[in-house]
Design a protein that fits this description.
The chain is mainly α and about 290 residues long. About 70% of the residues lie in helices and about 5% in strands.
């Protein structure tokens, strides 16, 4: 008896984990380099020169990662198709304005990450934000940074899903909703960094070259509280409530698809080599008679 799978993993190429690590490092470098290499200008010109390069590098890494996942058998055509469908649906949910400034973009990205895992979540976050930008006309130098923020949110949800999969559904949804609520603030704080280092000045909310780490955090916290905290609190609460209401049903549906995408193992009965050889010898006269006819 032997086992065969519908998608055989093939070795070769760098580890897939390395590709996701490269995405993270490129994203972190894009966010943080202005603190070490201060640039002239303001928020209107922030990353206007290098944002296309960041987007191109991230896009190339996504394509290479997908190709490597398919080559290794960890993803197949159905997985890629499902990724495209979920990215489109998640992106379209950005058009839905929820009370408090929330967006369905985040709730579905989190739940899909929990259901399909961290690697799927990262790819979904990147693709969904890019899709939403195309639908809403929100393409600009801020886009690659929004893509990275959502990718980290959905990827972290995938890691969380590995821990909550065995919990009772109601308990798991509470944990996931709490995660989404916290990330509502984190997501609001991260994308602000794409332009904040370019707003220099003498005030307590501006960044100045030469500030130490403690002073930088203090200035940014003052800026975040005065500009984003109330908005992010409303959005985070709305998305947490949305997950509490729909999470059990949505997670059950998504995990049903996830189980169907797993490699199918078939058990095949094979006769021993000795029996195959004996059968070949015994059938030889019969084959000769058929040929003579």
């Amino acid at each position: 008896m032997t086992m065969s799978t519908t998608s055989a993993a093939r070795p070769g190429g760098p580890p897939t984990a390395l590709m996701y690590l490269l995405m993270t490092l490129v994203g972190a470098a894009a966010f943080l380099y202005p603190f070490w290499l201060p640039a002239e200008g303001g928020a209107a010109t922030a990353h206007s020169a290098d944002a296309p390069l960041v987007a191109a590098v991230i896009g190339a890494l996504v394509v290479a990662t997908l190709a490597l996942e398919v080559r290794r058998g960890t993803m197949n055509g159905a997985s890629v198709a499902l990724l495209a469908v979920l990215a489109t649906l998640t992106g379209m949910l950005r058009l839905l304005d929820l009370p408090g400034g929330g967006s369905g973009l985040f709730f579905l990205a989190v739940l899909a990450g929990v259901a399909f895992g961290p690697r799927f979540g990262v790819l979904l976050g990147l693709a969904a934000m890019a899709t939403s930008a195309l639908l809403t006309g929100g393409v600009g130098p801020w886009l690659p940074f929004q893509m990275l923020g959502l990718a980290w949110m959905a990827g972290g949800a995938g890691l969380l899903g590995r821990l909550t999969a065995r919990l009772p559904p109601a308990v798991e949804v509470v944990v996931v909703a709490s995660y989404a609520w916290v990330w509502g603030f984190i997501y609001g704080a991260i994308p602000n960094l794409w332009f904040w280092p370019f707003i220099t000045g003498d005030g307590p909310t501006a960044w100045q070259p030469g500030l130490g780490l403690d002073e930088t955090i203090s200035h940014y916290w003052a800026f975040y509280v005065s500009t984003s905290l109330a908005w992010d609190a409303a959005g985070a609460t709305t998305n947490a409530v949305l997950i509490l209401i729909t999470g059990v049903a949505v997670l059950r549906t998504l995990r049903r698809f996830s189980s169907r995408l797993s490699p199918v193992v078939e058990l095949v009965d094979l006769a021993p080599p000795e029996a195959l050889a004996l059968s070949t010898v015994e059938d030889l006269p019969t084959r000769r008679r058929c040929q003579n006819r």
